[in-house]
Every structure is written in C-alpha cells, then in structure tokens.
Amino acid sequence: MAKERKQIILQSLAKLLEERNPTKVTTAILAQESGITEAALYRHFPSKRSIFLELFTFCDETIFQKVGDIKKDDSIEPAEKIRLIFFFLMIFLEKNKGFARILSREALGPNEKNVIDAVNQFYERLELAMKQILTPHKELLQLTPGISAHLIISLSEGVISRFIRNGFKETPSGYLENYWVLLSHSLFKE
C-alpha cells in the first residue's frame, strides 16, 4: 500500500507540473491532488525536494535504460544510434510533460538544489554517452566527438525549452525530422 501511495504521489506531481505553473505546486496542492493529507504525504517523503528527486530519478533511469540498450546494439550505425537517442528523449518528454519541466529546471526552486545538480549531471552523462558512441567513428564527423555531442545536447535543451514556452502546444515530434536533417548535416560528413 505504501509503494502504491508513493506512486500516486509521483504521478500526481507529474500531472500538476504538466497542468499548472510549477512554482504554484505546494505540498498542500500535491496532497489534495493525490487524495491524501499533507501529513500522509510526509510519511512517504521527508520533503518536497525528495518527491522531486524521486520523480527525476524515475525519468533518469527510464531514459538511460534506453540509451544503454541503443549504445550496446552493434547492429545499429553510430549516426542512427544518435538519432534514436535524440528522438527517444524528445518523444519521452512530449509524452511526459511534467518531466520536461524538471529537465528544463523550470519546476525547481532554490530548495531543490540537489535535483538541479542531478539534472545537470543527467545532461553531462547524456552528452558523454553520445561522445562515447561517436569517438570510435570520428572519421565520419565534421567536428570532434565532444563538440558533436555538445551540439546535440544544446539543441535538445533548446527544444525542451521551446516546448514548455509554447505551453506544450507545438510538440517536438512535429519538428524532429527537420531537426535531425539539420543536425546530421552539421555532424556527419556526406
């Protein structure tokens, strides 16, 4: 039952982050959305920060599970691996808009510094994973593997910010193919 309640709280937080201004998500509103008291909320999580961190951890684990699967599949060419990771990230966030607010850091205030640090580390790890995919094939690249990975992450963060800024109306999937054409021409030699 406790595990079920924790899941309900996390799902409620993700929903609230999608639907409202994230700075207005209080523990009282979260408890109400979850159908429990604030006291019960604190029995499952010691702080609001820990709720955000656990929600972020789920997002992180889901994305890096997929990245790991793509990285180790030797039947996929490097450019296709990068495309699959980029597309997966964008579509995952399109379907989980609350996570987009966390990865943009928009939902995080100064009290969630440990979550902000975790998000920054997430991007560093994702950039490193892409660099590791590209390094053995640097002869295929226009730029160095590090700059190539940096470019992809920079574009990804920009797409996420734009998605949030337009109120989740224009979805990243509507532009993914165009973004990829631009990226692949910038990254890979013909």
Give a written overview of the molecule.
By secondary structure, the chain is an all-alpha fold. The chain has 2 domains: 1-45, Homeodomain-like (Arc Repressor Mutant, subunit A), CATH 1.10.10.60; 48-187, Tetracycline Repressor, domain 2 (Orthogonal Bundle). The chain has helices spanning 2-19, 27-34, 38-44, 48-72, 78-95, 97-103, 113-134, 145-165, 176-187. The relative contact order is 0.12.
Q: TL;DR of this structure?
A:
By secondary structure, the chain is an all-alpha fold.
Number of strands: 0
Note the main sheet: none
How many helices? The count is 9
Give the name of the CATH superfamily of the largest domain.
Tetracycline Repressor, domain 2
Mean pLDDT: 93
Distance between the termini: 56 Å
Oligomeric state: single chain
For the record, the count of structural domains works out to: 2
What is the CATH top level name of the largest domain? Mainly Alpha
Secondary-structure content class: mainly alpha
Low-confidence stretches: none
The CATH architecture of the largest domain comes to: Orthogonal Bundle
